[in-house]
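Deliverable D4.2, example record:
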Amino acid sequence: MKKVVFAALVALAVSIPSTAVAQGVFDLPIGDPSRSGSTLRPALDVIVATADGAELTPAQIAERLEGVRLLLIGESHTSMDFHRVQDRVVRALQDSGRRVLIGLEMFPVTEQASLDRWNDGTWSEDEFVTNSEWYRHWGYNWLYYRDIFQTARSGNSPMFAVNAPRANVSAVRRKGFEGLTDEERTGIPPHVDTDDEDHFTLFRSYFDDEEDDDSTHTAGMTDEQWQGMFAAQCTWDGAMAWNAVQNLEADNDPNSIMVVMVGSGHVAYGLGIARQAQGYFNGKVATLIPVPMEEEDGEPIEAVRGSYADFVWGVPGETAPLYPSLGTSLTEKDGGLSVLFSDPESLAGKSGITSGDRITAFDGWEVADKLTFNRLVADLRWGDTVRLTVARGDENLEIAIPLRRE
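Output generated by the structure prediction step:
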């Protein structure tokens, strides 16, 4: 999974992995100096306030968040336990009487109209998933997020698109801020801070394992390439900070709280969204990140740095996502769908799908765009077998991919 995410980052300026992928990312001596020298051991189903070590129940979290105006909750996009934490926190805040606004990473600001139709009840669930083109903007299974959307609607918590259009962030990586057109500045704040040593340390740490393998895309990258991608990452953080704060302040309710749901890499150590907001937001900011009890290889997470987040919530380790993912990074090219990268350890990679393949059909259905492909993947379940028709050079191949967990 890491390799797929990184390959997409190289090609499209996609953000860093949504959760820490190795023990080292949880335990870096960076961030808030008052907590960066201490560590804690996470406990399953326990919320720990890292400032004082207090152990909290879900019912108590709203009390601790009194006075907080901007709350950033990290997620691993394919972990249902992370999303249950997000839903639980929103419900606790609603029950406490707070007006809760929800900022979403998966939609760029240009797509707010779709969320408005969800907020006012105009669209049903099926209409929203279809009409908003969920599977074009995001790609992760809607069912991971369904309960959160239902909690928002039932609790009168409006949802807001806070991201910048993907193409605009990619433009920053390619040509810097000075070269952006007016259109490419859509969703991007007036200023983005790209000069923070701790943040760059964190950014590089997500891919340290990649650099140890000469076959990966990280090997041999120049400092200029790293800095270009880091600028794109900071732009993503800055855009979500700026747009979340703009919507919070427009709400004009001193009791409101903006809860931003976003990949953990944008939240960790307060170096992403929280740092970018410091220049123009005077309200209190807090961070909460679920922490799996085990790494991907089953090794226990022994220590989490106190500066990792204001609150950490222990959740079970996850050996496989709840819903199948093929493990490819795709791009729409020349009217078709091409494979940018296929993780050799993924379901697709093990079945023979490789970079450069052109996918033309999915179980006999013609596919020419990511929206169609991702929607079809979302209907799959473990135990199924999907058959892809692939053009590779002058050959047309039929490749069967059994969906089985190891």
